[in-house]
Design brief:
Order of helices and strands: EEEHEHHEEEHHHHEEHEE
Low-confidence stretches: none
Strand content: 25-35%
Helix content: 25-40%
Structural class: alpha+beta
Radius of gyration: 19 Å
Number of helices: 8
Length: about 290
């Protein structure tokens, strides 16, 4: 084996995130932007990455310790096109990519449960290591529940200029503010959406969770944008609960064009310096071995 390449998708915030009975959990979805990790054997250790993320080194050491490998004999390159500090799982994608690459190098198929457990030991993590949508204890790395994934969806990402340090946010106790209501009804709405294949209930689940999170990280014009979403027929708007993006989830191209035109005309997109579209896809690492 000369080279292992792993591509891990990012996300656009969370469908829901909050306190659901016993504790905090989330459901996020993957989109088609990636962190690409390339691992090759080397006579000396080297890690190169196109953005700052010290957690990738922690992931490398943890994975090598688990498989009894010497990371000093590995060369690791990380090239990511996922925006950093926006709530789009850039750190999680790097971490999962490194863990997966080392696992494959050690001769093991990377198990998503193992990936989630180790990733959560490094930082609160999204559930992009799983193929399908799951309710995930992102603090302890446990899968609590699974859902049927909706297919052929897209998301218009609304990105603000600010960046967020998730660990710093948690140290301030920000998420404790969102414990009311506890448990949140967003999870029940998502369950019904999954069972009934209901876009309306999916949108309501996202809306409920996004509004509950306004006390943690306020998103400008969320109420107005949500109303426009309803009027123009897009599925709904979800938030990055520890980031600075909103996701306008849709299926019909005419509805998103109508949403953009109206939101722009009314000035509600001004705080969002970038807008761009991604496909919502299956999660999990994409692995190539040479």
């Amino acid at each position: 084996m000369k080279k292992v390449t792993v591509k891990v998708p990012g996300s656009c915030g969370e469908i829901i995130q909050g306190f659901y009975g016993l504790g905090e959990a989330l459901v996020s979805y993957a989109i088609d932007c990636y962190s690409t990790v390339t691992l090759t054997p080397s006579s000396h250790y080297h890690l190169s990455i196109n953005h700052h993320n010290e957690k990738a080194m922690v992931a490398l050491r943890k994975a090598c310790a688990f498989f009894d490998l010497d990371y000093n004999n590995l060369n690791v390159e990380i090239d990511s096109d996922i925006p950093v500090g926006k709530g789009m799982a850039s750190s999680t994608a790097d971490i999962v990519g490194v863990l997966s690459a080392v696992s494959v190098y050690a001769g093991r198929e990377p198990d998503p449960v193992w990936l989630g457990t180790l990733a959560a030991q490094i930082e609160p993590t999204d559930n992009i290591m799983f193929k399908d949508w799951v309710l995930f204890d992102h603090l302890n790395g446990r899968v609590l529940e699974g859902f049927s994934q909706f297919e052929c969806l897209k998301v218009l990402v609304l990105e603000m200029d600010e960046t967020i340090d998730t660990k710093a946010l948690r140290k301030k106790g920000a998420f404790c503010k969102s414990k009311k209501p506890n448990p949140s009804n967003a999870l029940n709405l998502l369950r019904m959406a999954s069972e009934e294949r209901s876009y309306d209930k999916l949108g309501e689940a996202m809306k409920t969770s996004a509004f509950e999170n306004q006390v943690v990280l306020e998103k400008p014009h969320l109420a107005e944008l949500t109303q426009i979403a309803k009027e123009t027929g897009v599925i709904g708007i979800n938030a990055a609960h520890s980031g600075t993006v909103l996701g306008v989830v849709y299926k019909d191209e005419s509805s998103i064009r109508a949403f953009q035109a109206r939101a722009k005309a009314l000035g509600y997109l001004k705080p969002y310096i970038k807008t761009y579209i991604h496909n919502i896809i299956e999660g999990g690492p994409r692995i190539t071995v040479e």
